[in-house]
Design goal:
The protein is an all-alpha fold. The chain has one domain: A middle domain of Talin 1 (Up-down Bundle). Helix content is about 75%, strand content about 5%. A hairpin with a 2-residue loop joins strand 3 and strand 4. It is globular, with a radius of gyration of 19 Å. The two termini are about 20 Å apart.
């Protein structure tokens, strides 16, 4: 157990080290290529910071541990919102959702809630083999995710909704005061892509180590794969989101930071498809049950709380964070207690 715990810790630190640089490179690429920051946050950062979930989920599925694989995915969805709330508490002077007045984020949240609802319906209804060993529901979830990316790309930039009250502190002001971004912008575009890819590969390797040791720790500690996957493993694989969201908020790219979380969560639900492919004992959804349905429901609740905050857009705080972030943390703590009782 000590050896597994040591490898788990070192791999988690590597994930943090590599993830800390991703938002800087992504922001520089977005600036140079004139891409929308919500789209870059949802797709670029969303995909790359999901690499630990991809590595851990595929590994756990290949090991035949369906509860660890699925709970890692759905637990990560819940944990990302906790990350957003903690970032709001520690690094934002006001309510984070007040500083992210982009309608595309509302669409992103609605599409995420749709995916989570479909995932809950899939687990409750059970699954049948559709393409060999692959179930029908994961194919549907992957298709909905692909459609979401398409709609988000074509939606950003439209002026159908416009905020009336916007923050005084602009993105350009905070960006100009950053000490990190100018260094990244001195690199050539080719070097930016290479650095981005190198850090992504490091995240994948560390994610594989986290999954392998996490599976062993689940047996050695007696906590169970489901609970461990939804808490400790989800926390470790969420480290890139912590660092990339913090990096985005630090330079005032609030929209990119929030879009990173929503995009990561949307991809997380879609990752049930590759998990199903490598799981060798039939449809993976048929191997899980009530705990996973509860995680889907909790994910929808947390999504709706942040959507409420973005729609209301009142800069009210509780304990230095937005009211919506405070409610998210409270709901998460209650949810973990319920999850422990049913796993």
């Amino acid at each position: 157990m000590p050896a597994n715990a040591a490898v788990f810790t070192v791999a988690s630190l590597l994930v943090w080290f590599a993830g800390a640089r991703l938002s800087v490179y992504a922001d520089a690429i977005a600036e140079r290529k004139a891409l929308g920051r919500a789209f870059v946050g949802a797709l670029f950062l969303g995909v790359v910071t999901s690499l630990p979930e991809i590595a851990t989920t595929v590994t756990a599925s290949a090991l035949g541990n369906a509860p660890l694989a699925v709970n890692n995915l759905l637990g990560s969805v819940v944990m990302q919102f906790v990350v957003l709330a903690v970032i709001d508490l520690l690094f934002v002077r006001g309510a984070l959702t007040f500083f992210a007045p982009k309608p595309v984020l509302l669409l992103s949240g609605v599409l995420l809630a749709l995916q989570l609802a479909l995932a809950a319906a899939a687990i409750a209804a059970g699954d049948l083999a559709f393409l060999g060993r692959v179930g029908l529901w994961p194919v549907l979830l992957a298709s909905v995710y692909a459609g979401s990316v398409y709609f988000l790309y074509h939606y950003e930039g439209r002026k159908r909704w416009a905020p009336v009250d916007v923050p005084d502190e602009s993105y350009k002001d905070r960006r100009a005061g950053s000490e990190v971004l100018p260094k990244a912008e001195q690199h050539s575009t080719r070097r930016l892509y290479l650095l981005f890819c190198a850090n992504s590969l490091l995240v994948v390797a560390a994610g594989w180590a986290i999954s392998s040791t996490g599976d062993a720790l689940a047996l050695q500690t007696g906590l169970g794969s489901g609970f461990l996957g939804a808490t400790l493993l989800a926390l470790a694989t969420s480290l890139p989101e912590v660092s990339t969201t913090y990096g985005a908020v630090k330079v005032g790219a609030y929209t990119m930071g929030v879009a990173n979380i929503f995009g990561t969560n949307a991809l997380g639900v879609a990752l049930l498809f590759p998990a199903d492919i490598v799981y060798g004992e039939g449809p993976i959804i048929a191997a899980v049950g009530p705990a996973e349905i509860f995680l889907c429901a909790l994910g929808i609740v947390l999504t709706c709380l942040f959507l409420w905050g973005m729609l209301e857009r009142r800069n009210r705080t509780v304990l230095r964070m937005g009211v919506d972030s405070a409610l998210v943390l409270a709901a998460w703590m209650g949810g973990v207690a319920v999850l422990y009782s049913i796993t």
